[in-house]
Amino acid sequence: MSKSKPTIFLDPALDRTSIATDETISRDQLAVWYRTMRLARACDQKLAALYRQGKIVGAVYLAIGQEAICTGVVSLLNRDDYFSTVARGLAGWFLRGVEPKHVMARWLGRDVPPAHGRELGLFFADIQQYGIAPYHNGSMASWIPSGAGFALAFKIRKQPRVYIAFTGDGATSPGDFYEGLNFAAIHKLPLVVVVENNCFAYSTTIEKQMPVENVADRAPAFNIPSEIAFGNDIFEVRRVAKRAIDYARAGNGPYLVEFKTFRVRGHGEHDDMGYVSADLREFWEKRDPLRLYAEYLSGAGGLDEAEVKAIDDECVQTVEDAVAWAEAQPEASPDSVTDRLFAP
Amino acid sequence: MAVITYLEAISQALRDEMRRDENVILLGEDIAVFGGAFKVTVGFLDEFGEDRVIDTPISESGFTGAACGAAVEGLRPVVEFQFADFIACAFDQIVNYAAKNYYRWGIPMPVVFRGPAGGGFRGGPYHSQNPEAWFTHVPGLKVVQPSTPYDAKGLLIAAIRDNNPVIYFEHKHLYRRIKEDVPDEDYVVPIGVADVKREGTDLTVVTYGAMVHKSLAVAERLSREGAECEVVDLRSLSPLDRDTFLASVRKTSRALVVHEAQLTGGFGGEVAAIIAQEAFDVLDAPVTRVAALDIPSPFAASLEDAMLPTEEKIYTAAKNVLEY
Ligand SMILES: Cc1ncc(C[n+]2csc(CCOP(=O)(O)OP(=O)(O)O)c2C)c(N)n1
Ligand SMILES: [Mg+2]
């Protein structure tokens, strides 16, 4: 890094160290979103601890620092809208009613629906109960074509539903990103791509991932609108995502929103993040979405600090209870290993 | 009943199912306005409209993934790959999304992938392949390959009505060459059931696709020479009907496995292994395979003919097994 050039971590136009909203939002509603984000944070912190204790057999991937994006976006959705998230969307599931105890049981490989031990806690799909559709989340970007397919079904059936594809910055380089968005743009499908640009794809920086500065700079290839916004401000997330969702729902086609954010932990908990500079961490530390939100809440938000603290404590307790419940669940029986390969 | 070609049988199955169920939609390159590279879907656009007959951009992974998503949502998409060779571009969506979806979540994905496969008409390395073994290795996929118009229609209807991803390989060489009487009404050839195309007592030939016809021709020749072959057409590779070919081998004590795809890692290895393990006690000769040479499909006639299994190669191998 050259000494003469000061490092800019975020375009000054996007930079926020405090947040505010023009919307009229009830205290209760504000608290719900805060609780959702805090619960996701508490879950992730607990998962990190369980990982270190060797209680989680595989790897663990956390969403710390990105909670405002999925909370803000999913808060705008109708129940029959679909969204797909990868590692970093736990709060979105909670907003849909997914229970922390089930999340924990899945991470611990227990025999709980819908995966019954067949899939990591990282992934989740249950249309009937939570309206979360199964998508292809193995290979990066492969959920963009399938998202276009869900959106195609909505369009063919003339349903005013949208599909939100949460996508990392790294996942905008594989061919599927192009193939899926190209198809969706041709057919004007209600697909909103929400890019969580968290500065890294695993260890790889944006400069090594793409020849453009922003993911949004790729949108002109599809002739679709795009916006860039600060992703750690839940209110800004709602403002920008609402435009995108309304646009897609009205039948105008796909929309791309790029939220700048930061992956506070490593790619997974096995990652020591040696490639992340102290300056960068410190910069984002001051812009942590929960910190910004908590400050807003206990100021203009109308809650006092004790009330905010009470939510924090309640979330930690919920997670402790969730782990206790999860640990008491059985593992899937080996006899079931070949079950459910084909649908009847 | 009417005499129709293998291609017309495929067309008929698609049209009938689209008339019966509005959830059936088609996606593929040049299938709408042009009616498909092989003209399987001529007239479909006029009858069913552009919401249901979709000309896609050249993006196999993109439209395959889209079909999979739409299938989860309750549509029953049938994807046409212009040539089975290009299914390679959609490999990830098929093997990592479609194949694993039900095992992971218990949510059905009723989607069909049609791949015009096979060589014999100088298509060269990218228009001649038989990629079935790429997919029979993957749990969660059904893989079928009809050899006759009757089976082509019945298997495609079964595939469309199946609640799982089904890969349907149709042999290009059979499109207009093979004709037979096929019922006008709809019927199903169940997936996972083989068919004995010729009965015999001396040698079991296990085969599928275009090689069924070559094997039948060889069987006639051998019959004139006094040996009766039983020709088992697998029709479905996954799930595999072991019982039918094992019962046949138990009767004949000799087995020849024939396919058009390359030998090594080909599906015939699986069949041979099953016979060796399950019917070892009755075998009078080593289980023998006839398949393409282990090279890419060459273009020139002299080379392609040298590469593909021919009646002569099947005949020679059959004689060796019979005389062992
Ligand atoms: C096609 C493919 N290649 C590699 C991987 C392994 N992998 C999983 S996540 C990841 C990085 C993703 O980065 P990004 O899209 O920015 O998402 P983030 O992890 O930052 O949220 C990689 C390389 C994969 N899942 N799929
Ligand atoms: Mg990233």
Account of the 3D structure:
- The complex is a heterodimer of chains A (344) and B (324).
- With 344 residues, chain A is of the alpha/beta class.
- Helices cover 40% and strands 9% of the residues of chain A.
- Chain A has helices at residues 27-52, 67-74, 90-95, 100-107, 127-130, 143-156, 175-186, 206-209, 234-249, 278-285, 289-297, 305-327, and strands spanning 82-84, 163-168, 191-197, 200-201, 204-205, 226-230, 255-260.
- In chain A, the strands form two sheets. Chain A has a five-stranded parallel sheet with strand order 1-2-3-7-6, sandwiched between helices.
- In chain A, helix 7 links the parallel strand 2 (163-168) and strand 3.
- Chain A is globular.
- The model of chain A has no long low-confidence stretch (mean pLDDT 95).
- By secondary structure, chain B is an alpha/beta fold.
- Chain B has two domains: 2-182, 3-Layer(aba) Sandwich (Rossmann fold), CATH 3.40.50; 195-322, 3-Layer(aba) Sandwich (Rossmann fold), CATH 3.40.50.920.
- Chain B is built from eleven helices and 14 strands.
- Chain B has helices at 6-20, 44-48, 60-72, 91-105, 132-136, 149-161, 211-224, 242-252, 267-278, 301-307, 311-323; strands at 2-5, 24-28, 53-55, 76-80, 112-117, 142-144, 166-171, 179-182, 195-198, 203-207, 229-233, 236-238, 255-262, 288-292.
- In chain B, the strands form three sheets. Chain B has a seven-stranded mixed sheet, sandwiched between helices. Chain B has a five-stranded mixed sheet with strand order 9-11-10-13-14, with helices on both faces. A two-stranded antiparallel ribbon of chain B has the order 1-8.
- Chain B is globular and about 60 Å long.
- The structure holds thiamine diphosphate and magnesium ion (MG).
- The site of magnesium ion has 6 residues of chain A, from strand 4.
